């Protein structure tokens, strides 16, 4: 499939095409006013800059009929899958399960918990509901990736140092070759995003690679045309 110009060195795409796009938690709860992110005191507008980039990557994967996985951080309405420590953590204006302007905060199925309209999954794409920060914890992600024999993951979404980094580390430990999209991930804290990019690719890519979306898209265009 070719390679992507990346850091700390080029990322080789698998010759059998077993690569998936992972879009982490691009939910109203984190990107829009009235959700979990804002309840924790964050400026949610900071995360919106990556929407066009993630849209472009989504188009490329769809055009190439490659698998796409979306994740949603959310809990059951009765909160039985939410550890008390997570429920109590922080001094936000609203807690998980409280009623906000977009429905109950971080509860599956509520308007605020849904993926933003700009990145709505297609019926053919897999949506992983996750109670934790990592997308492998208490989900079927590993089984679904194995079923499709996926070995390489192109990772996008929010927030870089929380759910994105946790998922990337989980994936790394399970043997996946992970590439984090530099302009396809964002944080409420720019310095945390920068630190995450650097720690991922340090020590010869101890957790994986990072690359700009233009280099990723170029590699896929080359793959398609020959
Ligand atoms: C957070 C996430 N930040 N998706 N979740 O609580 O990163």
Automatic annotation (TrEMBL):
Superkingdom to which the source organism belongs: Bacteria
Parts of the chain that traverse the membrane: none
InterPro entries, alphabetized: Isochorismatase-like_dom (IPR000868), Isochorismatase-like_hydrls (IPR050272), Isochorismatase-like_sf (IPR036380)
Domain Isochorismatase-like: 20-207
GO molecular function terms attached to this record: hydrolase activity
Key words, A-Z: Hydrolase
PANTHER family hit by this protein: FAMILY HYDROLASE, PUTATIVE (AFU_ORTHOLOGUE AFUA_2G08700)-RELATED, PEROXYUREIDOACRYLATE/UREIDOACRYLATE AMIDOHYDROLASE-RELATED
Protein name: Cysteine hydrolase
Species in which this protein is naturally found: Aphanothece hegewaldii CCALA 016
